[in-house]
Structures are given as C-alpha cells and as structure tokens.
C-alpha cells in the first residue's frame, strides 16, 4: 500500500505515515482535548463559585478534577507540542521524514485511541477520581472501584506506550538524519528543545510505564503493591514523582523552544549566549531526575534527604534564570515586531517569570510545608505549565501559514492575545490570593468566596478567548490570503525555505549545510548503488570515492521508493484499544476458582462482554502485528547525514538501543519497587518464595539460548538457511522450556504451597507474593514476546528471508540478550536471597 | 528587611506560624521586588526596541539573520551581561534558601521545651496520635482515650503530634496554625504546634480558641468535607477534662507504637 491518497480523502488520514500529516493530526486532536479538558475546568470553576452550593457531587467533582489534570497534561499539552515537533523537526534538520514513519503513525493512533478509552471511562460507572497524581492507595479498586477507574489507568498506559514509540523515533531521527553540515550545536533551538525533551521522556516515561503496569496489575489481576502498608503509598510517591518532575519540563521545554525561536524571528536578533542556553537545557534535563522528592517534603523522608532535595531544586532553578535572561537580552537592539505569535511568546515569558519566582518559594522547605496541597501550588504550576502552553499558541500562529499556506487574521489574533492574557491572570493570580484554600476542595473557607468568583469569571472569559482563535484559523484556512513561502522578515530555519505547505518529501533536492548555509544539492545516483555527491552539472564527483558509512553501503535500498502509507498502525492501535477496553472490566466480570488442583480450576463469567472484548482484542493485536511485520514498507535512511555520536550505527539498530534503554528503566523501576517494599517490610523477614533448583535450571536454559541466538546471526551472515532455521528453532525450544519450567514453578506455588498474588500462606506475606509473581511475570511476558518474534523470524526464514539482510536477526538477538540479562538480576533477587 | 535577614530566630517565637510568617514575608518582599524589576526591564526594552517605523530603513548596525544560515548566536557585551545577571540572581536565590534552611532546622527540632512555654508538672509536652480515615480524624491520647474530629489541647504547651492513616493518604493541617503533616497508611509523620494563652484571651468568650483542621490531600468523595477542629483551652481546664477521660488499652498500644512506651 505505497500510494498515498489525496488529502481530501478520508483514507489518506487513516493510512498516512508522513510526518506533516501526522503533525496536523496531532495538533487537531490535541486542540480537541483542550476543549474537553477546558469544559471540565469550567465545571470545576462553577463548583467553586460558592462554597455552600454545589452542582456536582463530591465524587463527580473529583472525577472532573482528575480527568482535567490528566487530559491537560497528557492528552493536550505534550501532543500539541509534538504536533509541531512532528511537522517541523524533520524540516528543521533537513530530513525527509522521521526515522520510522510507520512507528510515528502508530504513536499517533495509540494517542488517539487512548484518548477514546479515557472518554469511554466516563461511562463505565465513572472515571478515575484519585487526582492526576493518583496517590496510593486511593488508586486501587478498594477505594476507587469503578470500571472506569481501571479504564482510565489503562488509557494512560496505552498513551505511554505510544509516547515511548514516539520518543525512540525522535531520538533516532535527530541523531541520525541531520542534513550534511548540521552538527548538533547547529540545530535550531526548537529542535534542541525537542531533543532534550525526548531524552528526558526516554527515562521518565519508562518509569511511568512501570508504575502504570504495576497499578494495572493491582487493578486488573489483583496484586497488592499499592495497598501494602509496607511502603506501598510511598512507593507510588517515589515512582510517580521520579516521572512527574521530569514531566513538568517535558511539557515545558517544547514551549521554551518556541519562545527561543520566536524571540529571534520577531526581533531580528540572534540568541544571546546560545551555547550557554544549550548547556543550560542539557543541565536541566539531567538535573530533572534528581529533585523529585520536593513533592514529598511532608512525607516521612528524613531531613538529610529533604535538604539534599532542596539543594538540587534550587540548583535546577539556576539554569532557568539563565534561560530567562538570555531571552530578555536577545530582544535588546532588535527590531521587535509585535505580531500575534510574538505577543504570545512574550506573554509566556512574563507568566513564566512569575511561575518561576513562586516555584522558588516552594523550594524552601519551610514554606512548602504550608503551601503543599493548597492553591499556591495550583497557581504556581498553572503559571509555568499553562504559561508554557501560551508560547505554544504563539507557535500555532507562527506556523499556521506554513502548515496551511494561508495567513491568519492579525487583528483577531491580537484580540485573542489581549483577552487571553487578562483572563489568564484573573484565573490564576486569584489563586495566589486565596492560596490557603486546600486543593481539590470545594467547601472552602467562605472568606475566599469573592476571590474564587473572580477566578471563575476569568475562567469563562479564558475559555471563550479560544473561540476567537478557532474562528480565526477556520476563517483564514478557507479564505485567508496566501502566505507565501516565508511571511516573516527575520526567520532563519529551513522550514521557511520551502513552499507552504511543503511538498510530500519536503525538499526540491537534497538539503545540505556543508558550505555553512542551506543549499539544495543534486546527487548523482549510479545504477545499483547509493547516491554520490555530484558537481554542478550533475556528474559524479570523483574525489576519492564513497563516503558512506558501512551500514549505508551494505544494504540495498536505493532502488526502492520510500513508502508513505500503511493501514497497520491504525488497525494495530485499534486492536490494542479493544484489548484494553476488555481488560478494564475483566476483573469484575470474571471470577477465577483455582481449586485444590489444576483439575478443579474454573472460571465464572458474570458478564461476557469484557472477556470477549479481551480475547478479540488480543487476537486482533497478534494478527495486526503479524501483518505489520509482513508489510513491505521502506523508509530509507538519509544517505548523507550528520550522526554524531552515532556515525557507525545503523538506523534501526540505533532505534533498538533507545528502546532497550527505556526497557532497562522499566525493569529498573520494577526491581527498585521490589527492593523498596522488601526494605520497608524488613529485609531479613523475607525468604525466597520459589525453590532454587528450577531457577538455576532456567538460568542455564536462558544463557544457552543467548548462545543459540548468536549462532543464528552467524548462520544468517553465512547465508545458510538451514543453519538459521536450526539456530532459531533451538532458541525457540529453549525459550519454551524456560516458560514450561516457570509454569511448573507457579503451579507448585499455587497448588502445593498456597501462594498466589494476594493470598500467601505462611511464612510469606501477600505483598511478597505479589512482588514475586508480578516481577517474574513481567519477565515472562518479555520471553513470550521474544518467542512470538522468533516464530515470525522462523516463518520468514523458511520462506527465504534474511539471506541478504541479516539485520532483523541481529535486532532480535539484541532484544533476546537483554531479556536474558534481566533474568540474571532477577534470579538472585527472588531465588537466592 | 535587612534586620529580618540577620534575625535568624525570634526570641519570642513559639509556633511554626511565626517562622512561616517571617520567611514568607522576606520571600514575598524580595520576590515581588525582583519580579517587578525583571518584568519592568523586559517591558521597557520591548518597548524601546519595537519596530516603530516598519522595516524599510536600512541601518548599518542591524544585521538580521536570514533563512538557511547556520545559527551562530550572539556573543559580545550582551553575553557578559547575561552572566552578570545570572550570577546576581544565583546569589539572591542561594542566600534566600540558605537563610530559610536555618529556620527549617528550628521547625524540625521544635522550640526548646520550656523556653517560652511554661510547662505544667513533669510532662513538658503533650503527645497526641492523629489517625486519618475516610473522612475524619481520630485523636488518641497517652491514656488510650480517642476523640473523633475534635482535638482538645491545652494552651502554652507544645503539642507533639504523630500522624498516620488507617485507609488512604490524607494530609492533616491547620492553616491558621501553619502546620501540616502527611497522613499515610503504614507511616508515621511527626510535627508540633502550640498556642499561647494570649490567643485565648483574644477570643470572644476569652476562654477557648478554635482552629479549623482541613485535609490537604485528595482522599475520596468526602475530601471536601473532611474538616475538624482543634480546641485550645487553659491548662487547668484541660487537666480536668483529661482526668475525666477513660483510658483504653487498644488506644494505648497504638499511641505507644507512635511515641514509644510512656512517650519520649
Ligand atoms: C524555578 C523553578 C521551579 C521550582 C523551584 C519549582 C518547585 C516546585 C515545588 C517544590 C513543587 C512542589 C509543591 C508541592 O506540591 O508542595 C512544585 C510543584 C509543581 N511544579 Fe514547580 N518548580 C519550578 C518550575 C516548574 C516548571 C518549569 C514547571 C512546569 C512547566 C513546574 C510544574 C510544577 C507542577 C505541575 C507542580 C505540581 C504538581 C502537583 O502536585 O500536581 N514547576 N514546583
Ligand atoms: Cu517537581
Ligand atoms: Cu482528604
């Protein structure tokens, strides 16, 4: 399915893998979620109108607060920013598309369907009502029993899966497809901010994925991590904020990038202290992982750790100072044009200054003791986060002409800004004035009533101001004047060097910065070989031959056309959506009776809908995954590109490494959780649940399979089909053996020793059983995933694949080694000590 | 302001509120000043360098960037200024926090028993266990007696509280008294507060002061209504009340889990 239908056809939007199409899809979907979250916000504000009169029940109010937070942070802010990132990062670095276009489409569809799941959760007996921070143990079914609560958790899980794919994609693209001559330090600031963002996302979202998986396991399977008094609540706090603090920069950095671009474009000046700005951005990205406990100053963590966290928190505010001053000084001696985009970026800076100053208050522990859980925090983070979003709206005006080819209406834009800015401060500054109000409380101290009413009035105006923007965009799209290639006087970045909107493959010829500025060069493509650089007449330059790195020379791709369409991302996401929808109600709809032996095992199904959805979804997922693997989809790597520091690494392999890095974090979080719970329970009070012998056998089995995977690669390299079949077959057999031993081990635990998830016979505790089953279970799921891939590879090998191109075997090998290494850590933790 | 910066610890302090109020004042004053200076400077420059006459006039100094150039950034005097302002702001922020940290230690330790607070008998402070539940608070005293939703304490006494929870995560706090502690199942958090008898005298009946307790962590459908009172009474009245309460073994056990046998 290589042909891409025209933009007027609905099919185009279902099958497209082009980064610009997907950027538009992200932007529009995110704006939809802005409305969704906005309506919830207005509900909250109406409830706050009068502390004595309520429109919502306590439960409904909590649902509104929770969904508002989740939607704005996850389903609006980041995707809105990533709409622009999708559209403009490839353009700014001179690439044709992202590194993995199909994966990019998959990320988008996962995002969309996860949002749909969240929407559905409102109708599954009410959505989650535990706050966007989902503190434990309020987040377990005992306290939030609705099916919709599980639905919301699984929606978040699905969102995170999509984000992980997107992260890997951007990291690989930016590190692997920069145009010739564009070093990392030469990248435009928006791209820089996205690069820092995705690096943080790689690790932060892995932690969220892990904590989400554990929560899903508590909710769907019945494990008892977060209800455990052996540190369950604090475990959630640590894992959530380990993700949560980087997350606040993850949502802010793209906005910062937009500010950095717009300040330059509309002042006609170059960024002051560019190098230091970049260094600050990198510093912040690293430091963001070292401050999370400033959200937990009032918990039982000790004074030494609090002090450390206070120091790191203040430390992280310093690079932000530098960023703010760099923005301000860039304007000096400029020719500032107060266009709508600039107004929004400038307004964002002012809001951010206020948000930053109030953040420093929070960083001082004594003050935080009082501010914690009050509207001070709410006001602070709206100034910084929504302040950031303000810059993104500036970005929307700035790039609207490029994305649509039409100019927006400047007057309406300015009206929007003025109304927006005033009402913004009405809403959020009033929160500072009424800061003693506890968060998420509507029966507040009546002394604050009038202040909260100002906030509510402001909120309605703020909400309405967006309709000016929607009207402006809609009207301009239909009948606005043509924008031309470059409507701005002082723009610099490459997206302004092509038509508006840019053509499908972006460039007239290959973009190159080799001469120090953007040029489009024509390469000479010999028959049956990769392109070589050409002189002005189009003849090959013969100054010493082939400059391509090994991985470009080795694999034939230059005789194929790049693909731009695939339906499988859409279908695969839909399948996962169905599976998760099924799982959300699976637990209440079924009852498992383990009986005294396997023969007594039975399942009662009270309501067939959810189990059926689960099974259908699972089958569809496997089927679409298979079709995905079989599809002939080409996304050629850039031939001449800057790849520092990954010059020698092939594109997909680089992506694989990034993915594995995030998976390392996931297991890291699971293992930390196990250690944390055990430490809280008293380290020495636990003795291993499983016997050592089966564990030892399995260790040997897995390590042997690592060896057979290497044999597979050797066979593929030697083009020996039989050898490859044998080696892959052996790997499959060993993997299956591992699972069989594991199954036997679990069977004995359940039927002989009476240990299962939440019901542990002496001397084990329920939480210990949960930790053991869930952690080793996650590993087993990885083994099963690996086996499915192995079977797929076997099938393809049988039909003659991998004789020319051994890469898939190699990538599978990387994954398999990783799974084996994880076991090497799990074995001592669960079997020996 | 300068005096309050050097004034590390007020001699007449006896409550977290005093510490908070001073630090908050200092931060607010400095924060507002810095905020106004930075915002005003920014606005002024934006105004000064506005593109007043369109972009037609050629200008020797003005060297705008062009599409497709590799970014270089500006060095020169502005970069120096950047470091100067950065350095200044760093000094302000760091000294603020160091200053606030000194006072944190005071809050963590609590005032010396007996400094400003006159203690009665050999017990110098009262220890109360606070147990949060959906949706209210239980207060257990050393004799095992438990009150629900109303915490009764004497004036002029340092009240040490240990906060825990029997279901989900709550947060126990009284805004006016400026103290707060997480109420987490399986954990015990400690803090303290005190109310001087001067405050009792300022109340209407001149006898008792009441302070509102609220829950500061979302804990379920009744979170909004999860408030309670702290009633402060003169020491002798408290003694009288306390002597009338019945002791309870289970309560004693829980209390001892938090404070140790017989208290500190
Ligand atoms: C000057 C730098 C900053 C400092 C020192 C700072 C400090 C803090 C502290 C200590 C808290 C915890 C408050 C509490 O719950 O008691 C907090 C909360 C928060 N901050 Fe900041 N912050 C800064 C900048 C930012 C930025 C740039 C963002 C996002 C763009 C941000 C977003 C948030 C959010 C979302 C929360 C609240 C999360 C929640 O409880 O729901 N902060 N900040
Ligand atoms: Cu934080
Ligand atoms: Cu509460």
UniProtKB/TrEMBL annotation, chain A:
It comes from Halorubrum vacuolatum. The lineage of its organism: Archaea, Methanobacteriati, Methanobacteriota, Stenosarchaea group, Halobacteria. Pfam families: COX1, COX3. GO terms for cellular component: membrane. Residues 556-833 form the Heme-copper oxidase subunit III family profile domain. Residues 13-514 form the Cytochrome oxidase subunit I profile domain. GO terms for biological process: aerobic respiration; electron transport coupled proton transport; respiratory electron transport chain. The keyword GTP-binding does not apply. It is a multi-pass membrane protein. One of its GO terms (molecular function) is cytochrome-c oxidase activity. This is Cytochrome c oxidase subunit I+III. The keyword Metal-binding applies. Keywords: Electron transport, Heme, Iron, Membrane, Metal-binding, Respiratory chain, Transmembrane, Transmembrane helix, Transport. SUPFAM superfamilies: Cytochrome c oxidase subunit I-like, Cytochrome c oxidase subunit III-like. PROSITE patterns: COX1, COX1_CUB, COX3.
Automatic annotation (TrEMBL), chain B:
This is Cytochrome c oxidase subunit 2. The keyword Metal-binding applies. It comes from the Archaea. The lineage of its organism: Archaea, Methanobacteriati, Methanobacteriota, Stenosarchaea group, Halobacteria. It is a multi-pass membrane protein. Residues 242-264 are annotated as: Disordered. The chain crosses the membrane at residues 23-44, 82-107. Signal peptide: none annotated. GO terms for biological process: ATP synthesis coupled electron transport. PANTHER family: CYTOCHROME C OXIDASE SUBUNIT 2, CYTOCHROME C OXIDASE, SUBUNIT II. It is found in: Membrane. Belongs to the cytochrome c oxidase subunit 2 family. Coiled coil: none annotated. SUPFAM superfamilies: Cupredoxins.
